[in-house]
Amino acid sequence: MSQPELRQLRYFVAVATHLSFTRAARELHIAQQSLSEQIGRLERLLGVRLLDRDTRGTRLTEPGLVYLAEARAVLERADEAVAAVRRAAGRLRLAFLASTAGYMLPPVVRVARERLPGVELTTADPAIEPLVAGLRDGSFDLAFTRPPLVPDLATRTLVTEPVCAVLPAGHPLAGRASVELAELAGEAWVLTPRASWPPWHDKYDRDFAAAGFTPRVVQRATTVPNLLGLVAAGAGVTRLAASARTLRRTGVVFVPIEGDLAETVAAWHPGRAPAVAHRLTELVAALAERTDLTDGG
């Protein structure tokens, strides 16, 4: 007989805790339809209805109440097992947000190899959604990323750098030492899809609103290199951290936006990250105080 996946248990616990698919989907940062489908699969696998859903809301059934307690116990034990194995093995699973990996991975791995020689490292460079999911489910112990802007993860700022308007070469503002965001109100914009990470786009909305405009988005791209390529092609302008200039040397110009800064942080799940993850964070923070990590390691 097939067994439920830990992911399905986490999804069920989130819905059962909030008694709302909408709030649970928001907390998990997945589409509500996907969440509903996963809960349906879990119920079919178990052969019982765990939740009653109607116009009055979502309620736990009697089997659902029993399963909630058991699911929480299983998840807690699974987390404890992962932490215990990693402590014993001296293993550290690192995630580097794809857009920061180029400059963060070399110095982080270097300092870990020099100062933590007995620790086995694995690295990955996911996008923000799987990075956050990995911290939550224990696939990653520590991540180096832009602030994920979610309340259940802890962060420590390592790098602060200017945010720049990225303009096509030859743009009228390309020769400026700096610009204000409001000066770009009339431009066509290329941005990432809102679904790529809603907390970031909520912040972007606030920033644009404070500058007095809503951007006219003409195209979306899922990666920083693609955004840079679209700008170089003249499709529009975008807004990126200054370190992204290392990803494209021609066809674009980076002009700092006044008062706009981007952070790179270490992020982890409180209570789950092993002690060695906190030790590595301290080592990288000390290194960041002595050198500019955005130089590329």
Question: Which helices and strands, and how do they pair?
Answer:
Layout lengths: L5 H13 L2 H8 L3 H15 L4 E4 L2 E4 L1 H28 L1 E6 L4 H15 L4 E5 L3 H10 L4 E4 L8 E15 L19 E4 L6 H14 L4 E5 L3 H9 L5 E4 L10 E17 L6 H16 L7
Parallel strand pairs: 3-4, 3-5, 7-8
Antiparallel strand pairs: 1-2, 5-10, 6-9, 6-10
Written account of the structure:
The chain is of the alpha/beta class and 297 residues long. The chain is 43% helix and 23% strand. The chain contains nine helices and ten strands. The chain has helices at 6-18, 21-28, 32-46, 62-89, 101-115, 128-137, 198-211, 224-232, 275-290, and strands at 51-54, 57-60, 91-96, 120-124, 142-145, 154-168, 188-191, 216-220, 238-241, 252-268. The protein has a six-stranded mixed beta sheet, sandwiched between helices. The protein has a two-stranded antiparallel sheet with strand order 1-2. Strand 3 (91-96), helix 5 and strand 4 form a beta-alpha-beta unit. The longest helix has 28 residues, at 62-89. The protein is flat and about 65 Å long. The model has no long low-confidence stretch (mean pLDDT 93).
